[in-house]
Amino acid sequence: MPLFFNPLEAAAHRLSIVPPMFDYFGALGLHAIIAAARTGIFDALSERPRTGGELATDLGLDPRRTEALLRALTGLGYLRARGGRYRLARTARLWLTTGSPTSLVAALEFWERTACVIWPRLEEAIRDGSPPTPFYALLESDPALARSFHAWTAALAGRQAAATARAVPVPRDAGHVLDVGGGHGLFSVELLRRHPGLRATVVDLPHGLESAADHPRLTLRPASFLEDDLGHGYDVVLLFNIVHGLSDEETARLFPRLAAALNPGGTIVVGDQFGDSLMPGRASRALLHLLDLNYLAAVGGRVRTFREVAALLRTAGFRRIRHRRPLGSPATELAVARTPTHPPPPRT
Ligand SMILES: C[S@@+](CC[C@H](N)C(=O)[O-])C[C@H]1O[C@@H](n2cnc3c(N)ncnc32)[C@H](O)[C@@H]1O
């Protein structure tokens, strides 16, 4: 929530004079922005400032409850109020209106379900280590959730793809990129824009490809990267935001298959959040640890450190492992590695 303590409030929290209510209220705040997005309040205010009464009439809402919601959203920092009229704060205009290129509105359902369906099972998982309901299998049987989840990953990628593509080392003579679990395909499309001689194949489950980008040099291949043949002869493999959803065993099985799919001297680029380096600062670290817990609760995965990813890559035969932090891509760092130019001779 775009809400900042004044010095008195900060002191009251630091000294524990007030109870730590922001976690409870954070959950309520999520429902407040969902209600405002779904009733059309954010979109209506993006056209022009209005009073609560005008909004209630225009959108067919209950006037008293609308006014209460508007006050709560103003308190949370999403709206500004002056002379009885409400207007959008910059953060709501950027992230919570449907017309914004950075809109997260389509992803609200995914977060609603994450908070209301997935996280309530956390206690059980912590007690007995019970595995989460397989998230991607759940998406297979729940098209609305799948659409919302993929809208979320596409929104994040849309913000970061250009910066990330600049940091991906594509050899001059590279011909073919494999984008493993590439879903929306936006990272591939950005690489295709930068490298006119390149083509790319996105492998993802059928629901992941439903709203994928369209590009003449982009092939969409519905398949499971855990079970199906991935082809071969690739110069670059992208593995973006995949490893955090896999167990060590799954990663240890996948990496050698990717090494085999690459040409000798080919490049693998693992894009993810790395626990040992991302986002300095106390609040950012708290978010990273919550994200780690979310991966655990949702997919049985976790945030790994760069060192852990590098060790898994090394075991799979990758060499020249480097760490890159693309500027302008705060949520994705890269582990870049190469397959040996000459594969080791077969053992006799
Ligand atoms: C967190 S999203 C990452 C999407 C994209 N790479 C990005 O970074 O924005 C994980 C993707 O992996 C796909 N996926 C998960 N399990 C898969 C599997 N076994 N085979 C193929 N795709 C899978 C999901 O459908 C989803 O698109």
From TrEMBL:
<dbReference type="GO" id="GO:0032259">
    <property type="term" value="P:methylation"/>
</dbReference>
<dbReference type="InterPro" id="IPR036388">
    <property type="entry name" value="WH-like_DNA-bd_sf"/>
</dbReference>
<dbReference type="InterPro" id="IPR012967">
    <property type="entry name" value="COMT_dimerisation"/>
</dbReference>
<keyword id="KW-0489">Methyltransferase</keyword>
<dbReference type="InterPro" id="IPR016461">
    <property type="entry name" value="COMT-like"/>
</dbReference>
<feature type="domain" description="O-methyltransferase C-terminal">
    <location>
        <begin position="176"/>
        <end position="319"/>
    </location>
</feature>
<dbReference type="Pfam" id="PF00891">
    <property type="entry name" value="Methyltransf_2"/>
</dbReference>
<feature type="domain" description="O-methyltransferase dimerisation">
    <location>
        <begin position="32"/>
        <end position="97"/>
    </location>
</feature>
<protein>
    <submittedName>
        <fullName>Methyltransferase</fullName>
    </submittedName>
</protein>
<dbReference type="InterPro" id="IPR001077">
    <property type="entry name" value="COMT_C"/>
</dbReference>
<keyword id="KW-0949">S-adenosyl-L-methionine</keyword>
<keyword id="KW-0808">Transferase</keyword>
<dbReference type="InterPro" id="IPR029063">
    <property type="entry name" value="SAM-dependent_MTases_sf"/>
</dbReference>
<feature type="region of interest" description="Disordered">
    <location>
        <begin position="329"/>
        <end position="348"/>
    </location>
</feature>
<dbReference type="GO" id="GO:0008168">
    <property type="term" value="F:methyltransferase activity"/>
</dbReference>
<dbReference type="InterPro" id="IPR036390">
    <property type="entry name" value="WH_DNA-bd_sf"/>
</dbReference>
<dbReference type="Pfam" id="PF08100">
    <property type="entry name" value="Dimerisation"/>
</dbReference>
